[in-house]
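Bumping with the actual sequence this time:
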Amino acid sequence: MSRVGKHPIIIPTGVTVEMANANLKARGKLGELSLPLNPLVVVTLENNQITVRPSNEEKNARMMWGTYRMLVQNIVKGVAEGFQINLEINGVGYRAAVQGSELVLQLGYSHEIRFTIPAGITIKCEKPTAVSVFGSDRQLVGEVAAKIRSYRGPEPYKGKGIKYDNEVIVRKEGKKK
């Protein structure tokens, strides 16, 4: 049984939540997000709180209980505060810059990589070796950060490449004579 699903979601000030046609919409200062609801869970909105519970005692309904509680929490938190993922670039000559609606990456290839920034995402480069991905949709923020990281993942010998700021790269020892 879900332990996460038991906790109610408190709606912060400045966020409005509406339910209509098996769809949950949250509107806040960072935009509007919607979530289609699964018939296996029952979502109720009362007293500035959202509660999620399974519609019956089947295994699938109990599995979706905690999942949908977190999905609802993510859209409520997303329109209120947003989500941010920071990336670090390590390597000689490796750098990033935002030019218009594109992120330009120079990662040691013979060409530069131009990544088109999707709608709803803000990318900032405070330094040439630091990239910050920000947005209200948690899934889209994680997807964009993973796509940027995939252009040159960190390698274990020198640690060159793009890594998350909280990621630990397990270093390997080099070749011995």
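The tokens above came from a reply further down the thread. The helical segments are 59-80, 138-150.
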